[in-house]
Amino acid sequence: MxxxxxVLDAMSGRPAAxxxxxxxxxxxxxxxxxxxxxxxxxxxxxxxxxxxxxxxVYRLTxxxxxxxxxxxxxxxxxxxxxxxxxxxxxxxxLLLSPYAYSTYRGS
Length: 107
Hints:
Elements: E1 2-9, E2 14-15, E3 20-27, E4 30-38, E5 44-45, E6 56-62, H1 64-67, E7 77-83, E8 89-91, E9 94-97, E10 100-103
Parallel strand pairs: 1-8, 1-9
Antiparallel strand pairs: 1-2, 1-5, 3-4, 3-6, 6-7, 9-10
């Protein structure tokens, strides 16, 4: 199973390069951090490299306050999603601006 993301900066109309994103898995005692990465020049993280990815509930945390050049209403964007079939690829895109964001299950 792999997890990827693509972040588009709606304010500039460009990919969000250099944005830190962290991946965690929900466990019985809370969240277990699995690692993170920074988006590349095209605003993508093609795969999070974390051992033991399996079915369950995961969290992507986008560090938007560190990325956006203006004060943002959303200093972090947190997307929690469920992985039902570990054999599939899970792509979680984010469209970002200082006062709004949207996401969907990508391909």
